[in-house]
Model the fold of this input.
Amino acid sequence: MMLRLNKKTVIIGFSGLLAFFVFFSIYMGKDMTSILPSSLQDTTPVLLAAAQLDKLWNYVYTMQYKCTKSEYLGGKPEMRNDGAYDLCTEEKFWPLSTNKDYKCLMYSFGVGFDFSFDDEIAKKKCEVHSFDPSMPYEDGWHRESGVTFHKTGISDADLDKDSNGWKMRTLKTILQEMHHNGRYLDYLKVDTDAPGNRGGFEDVLLQELLDTGLHKCVRQFAMEIHLAGPLTKKKWADRVDTIYRQLLQLRDHGWKIYNTTDNIRWEPDLSYTQLKGKQKILYNDAIILWEVAMVNTGEVEPCQPK
Done:
């Protein structure tokens, strides 16, 4: 007896086989598109990017720790609280909650003319240093709240002047220049937009934390994740993959997400949702922004970079 297959059955079966191939490629961490027929090689990178975005999407929305005491601080009211971040005030992650003499320290990379969160942390008697090379304020300016401003940006290299004319430093160098080695970073925040709003520098800081072991001296870490499209461009697809892998490595060191907020405040359409951004980012010049807060449930020790 001959097996008769209609067109619909063939398409469904082929689609399932292709989907299996895509997810297997991601699981293996290898580009295996070259063994596909040439007619399919153009579409497979898109499917790989979509699948990788799904993995990162699901990861940032999965809460791994429940903070029983937290405060949502800062933000611009006129921008629906853009710039606000969560602070977990449990004693393990915020020693000031029980020890008023504790020498608290916070670094904030990326200000964008909004010191509101940094000011709120400083008012809690924490030493706060805010870094942003794109702003016209004088280096070393002390705000009324107690925040100290530095006209310096975060980078993977020490540059006195980059292509934008900005002074850039690694976290390791900043700790040395600020004479903060041997202390803990109680809160580390990075919200750094690259010029033209096409990604940020959070992946640079994530990689340095992992490479230097400095993730061990940070108690809380908050960042805005910037994903740019179209993911049909390898540069942006690779960024999704990089950030996902960095977050997995941090998780292995005890870092757990306790809050993720959609930043869609820049969108004038109040009906806009992050899901709409997800649909657009694959093929269009679109962005996805997440504000992700994490706590270090693993080993904590004073900052001594490798």
